[in-house]
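Whether sequence alone determines local backbone shape is best considered at the level of individual chains. We regard such an encoding as a compact summary of how the chain folds. The sequence in question and its structure tokens are set out directly beneath this paragraph.
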Amino acid sequence: MATAPAQASVVAMDLKKIAIATLVVLSIGGGYAAADQRTTTRTEKVLTIDAAVKAAQATLDAAEKENQRVTVAVVDRSGDLVVLLAGDGAGPQTEESARRKAFTAVSFNAPTSELAGRVTGQGATLRDIPGTLFLAGGVPVAVDGTSVAGIGVGGAPSGDLDEKFAKAGLATLR
């Protein structure tokens, strides 16, 4: 049977080995931690509030030049509303229409006029996804091919006009 001082010496030696082993593992594992961090996080481009306001105002200005009473919505990549501008005299339905068109455009990274053809036929289609609206008037804002926001317009007599105005706002971001 070992004496107390001998046991203490063995325990101290074991602790020293454990400490050294831990340091070795941490020094080797540090590279793995850095690699994991690079693969588990990402940097995303987002539309700034200033850019969203600028695009929304340019959209509204384009509509007003043609005496159209519209509402403009700009949503972020998640479909959350960033800016909403209701022009003088815009109808109450235009807010929902503009927001849903912007949401649809950012969700599918395509103008809503192009998406309208994908919602035909029997059975479930894209039109069944809550919050979407497949009428012309929504355009995506893309950076390097990735959708970062959407601009939607509601209220002009045709979706073609709504889309024309949305594209005018988009042009200010180029």
